[in-house]
Amino acid sequence: xxxxxxxxxxxxxxxxxxxxxxxxxxxxxxxxxxxxxxxxxxxxxxxxxxxxxxxxxxxxxxxxxxxxxxxxxxxxxxxxxxxxxxxxxxxxxxxxxxxxxxxxxxxxxxxxxxxxxxxxxxxxxxxxxxxxxxxxxxxxxxxxxxxxxxxxxxxxxxxxxxxxxxxxxxxxxxxxxxxxxxxxxxxxxxxxxxxxxxxxxxxxxxxxxxxxxxxxxxxxxxxxxxxxxxxxxxxxxxxxxxxxxxxxxxxxxxxxxxxxxxxxxxxxxxxxxxxxxxxxxxxxxxxxxx
Length: 290
Fold this sequence. Notes:
Elements: H1 5-16, H2 24-30, H3 40-46, H4 49-60, E1 65-67, H5 73-83, E2 89-92, H6 97-110, E3 117-120, H7 126-134, E4 141-142, H8 146-149, E5 165-168, E6 171-174, E7 189-193, E8 197-202, E9 213-214, E10 220-221, E11 224-225, H9 232-244, E12 260-263, H10 265-278, E13 284-288
Parallel strand pairs: 1-2, 2-3, 3-4, 8-12
Antiparallel strand pairs: 5-6, 6-13, 7-8, 7-9, 10-11
Helix pairs in contact: 1-2, 1-9, 3-4, 4-5, 5-6
């Protein structure tokens, strides 16, 4: 990763649905809402946990989040309860967050801080979050960094770029690959998204023949933008609406469900004609450019 990776990851995370970032450059460059908490070094610099919390509170007021595990989580929660309002809540950054969150919630509630929230951090991922939420842990927010920005479970994205159309002078031809592991479909295409499936068709097929929304449109042509890029907030809203429209089984983090992708009759016929011609060493021509 380059030094810019964290900033770009913060933008992408916000676009995908996260509420904000602690990356101030992402806030400055892209308008991502910025929030954060003090580090352990803040508390250690004061030598006294209570003085550190009071100094932070004087700076941040209602936005204060006390990091309570610098020395001892339970004692830190008790100190935060003594300091009291104004504050947003507390943060847990180590230990068994399911067990500790229950004890911390009890301390806060017994001190009259029932509105104080509890945030959890420390190398969380979607599986750990689902686990503690499913167990009923009294957690209100999660800060996710490493597992979100580094793609630890899939550090490489395997992709292959294949030729589907060949132009030689005034002639152009469609091409395809039919090996079992890396087969492709010929020609430029359009994809139509229907309610529970996608349909792949030739780009020049009549769109009225299909029910779905066409997904592909030119954004860059000959190195130049041909469409004004939307603001980040608009992209975020679009992403949320698109995710919400997906069938429920696709949203599970436990087991991936199959998603139907069909191919138009014309595209299948073209692929079959190319397969037949390849047996004789021919290219399938589509005539002269007009």
